[in-house]
User: Fold this.
Amino acid sequence: MLSYQHAYHAGNAADVHKHTILAQLLARLTEKAKPLTYMETHAGRGIYDLSNTEAEKTGEARNGIVRLLERNGLADGHPYLRAIEITRRGFGPTSYPGSPMIARTLLRPDDQIHLMELHPQEHAALKRVLRAPNVHIHRRDGYEGVLAIAPPTPRRGMVLIDPSYEIKDEYEDVAAFLPRLHRKWAEAVIMLWYPILPACRHETMAATIERAGLKGFLRHEIRFAETTSERGIQGSGLIFANLPHGFDSVTRAYAWP
Ligand SMILES: C[S@@+](CC[C@H](N)C(=O)[O-])C[C@H]1O[C@@H](n2cnc3c(N)ncnc32)[C@H](O)[C@@H]1O
Assistant:
């Protein structure tokens, strides 16, 4: 079942949380001259247009990236702002970078990027916008694809896990996948995103991952002041493994404007 389309949610408050921290993490990882491998299990289409019908229908970006930029919530030179500016220069003033485009703008030509996307249209869109010799786009199940490549060359690197949680089992799948990936590619920095919903299914998933005793484990959550509906998303969560030394101060400093 692939009914989820990120175009309805691009640039919302959860995306802003995830993408701000992702950009800061990539900036930290590229401080070292050594090349790295970046992988995503669930890539999406790479670039979104916030003026299209899907985005307009939900209006979610207004409480997300639109508000953040209006309130100058990102310091000059912030890597997330850099990624947005580069995307808008190339794709127009209402475009918004998804996680693959953020990685593409912040990583270097020697870094290898592997992106998994199963949906045929999202995969085709991603292939159109992210052409580069170091970008490898796979139409393949993200869990299976990343495990098949891990550990990659270069061995230094990170994985973003960003499922749509369309089916309940996804929480269990992630809880099983993340420790497995950590065992197979011990050096990888891992970043997992999850929604905080009234059913609180993320709690069991997070507890299972925490019990696996991963090196450099960190859980970081924010709650939104406004929710769109009773069943709507109430907050956004991230789980990390192998978090770089001192990066917890970056997540602690995260502030929603
Ligand atoms: C939340 S969106 C990704 C958003 C993207 N990471 C970003 O931040 O811009 C999830 C994507 O995963 C895709 N997807 C769903 N199940 C998948 C699977 N098993 N393997 C790979 N992609 C999958 C969906 O088609 C959707 O485009």
